[in-house]
């Protein structure tokens, strides 16, 4: 169990030409309650079970516990998930000393692109890539667990 | 992920003298929704994360996935659980070819004692020990995830 410190931004500029890796991600939620989410993810034929706690006041920091699953386990656990699934491609883009994870969503969240950067501490500085725009850290509408229930296309 | 096949009975007779082992169990639920529960358990200084799916119609059979946790992980994940905790002692009692798990509850479920037997198939026969009474297999009120929300003392 570790503390996850992240900041999240909307993406408006071109980023794909700068990406050094990309993966398709499918994920569902066994639990999407506020303050405790249980996520099942399939990424590049591997499964992951991730449990996240409540955010701090700024929305920057959150407890996270993760365990790798076999693909078969992940597929079984995916069947237990709440209705709705998140389908996206994650691009990795380096900027200065940090790697930005840029998620391009499909399906009911088509049109939404967000970038996240993980930090070692809440006050760590980082270079902002040209493709990012408004910060949405802590805005629960952009949590994947919320995008599943209230997809971007319905906003 | 395996199919768990169990039958559950109320306990009215004396069983402790027949027990060959006992453990104190503390457990909470990150998710207690119908058809998908995520349980954190501490038993004998070990932690377990268990995800269960929906029961079949008879209530006998249910998908179950379990992963062992360190005590520290279990204690952290316990903090994310819904309010309320199940506190009980589990006694193991052999009867014929089977081992019955007899749970004596404390706190808000004080007075409740239930016995469960795990079967290899739904139609497997088993010897009934003298201490068991009415069968409550499939009765959701006796699910631990429900006993947390509507404890026995409030019935």
TrEMBL record, chains A, B:
Pfam families reported in the protein's UniProt record: CYTH
Family matches, as SMART domains: CYTH (SM01118)
SUPFAM superfamilies: CYTH-like phosphatases (SSF55154)
Catalytic site positions: 29 (proton acceptor)
InterPro entries attached to this UniProt entry: CYTH-like_dom_sf, CYTH_domain, NeuTTM/CthTTM-like
Domain CYTH: 2-149
Top-level lineage group: Bacteria
Alphabetized PANTHER family for the sequence: SLR0698 PROTEIN
Protein name: CYTH domain-containing protein
Organism, scientific name: Bacteroides faecalis
